[in-house]
Amino acid sequence: MRKVLITTLFATLCAIFSAECQTITQFKERLAVADTLSGARVVCVEFGSAKEAIEKFDVQTSPMEVLQGYRIRIYSGNHQAARAEAEAAKALFEENYAVPAYFVYDNPYFLVTVGNCLSQEEAMILLRSVRVHFPKAFIVTTEIPRQVVLSRPTPKPTEEALSAEQLQTENPTQEEQKQEEAAVVLEQR
Fold it and tell me: pTM for this structure?
């Protein structure tokens, strides 16, 4: 569980920092604005291949619009009643889970996929819980828009994590006990 939380946190931070990165062109524009105190400004002049190289670098380092990720396919069908079955599968999923579901028609198939997982471990955990209602579900790779990843809610701690936290607060470590005793001694003075 820790591994999934750490991986999710790391991926979210990477996405946030990549969204805040600036291109060289933006950097040069910021430098060209006169300083409020001294009035100094920087003027950049580029010649020939240097300009092409910088433009190429800007394109390569621009923030990614999509990330490679995983979703769970809970329904796939192409028969007469497939549309109705896909809508029913999506409705059943939305009743039981607080995870986004996606209904897509990819000729000739009606597909329902769920989740926005950044790691296989996260997808496997979701798959395990989804198989209660959808035993034929499986993991598929997909592109997930960056904005979807940034807007994901932070995961709530599980009961196991909460019980471990409670145990730690109920059974303070020796260091915490020493700190409490030192605080009591200081209060008595």
Answer: 0.50
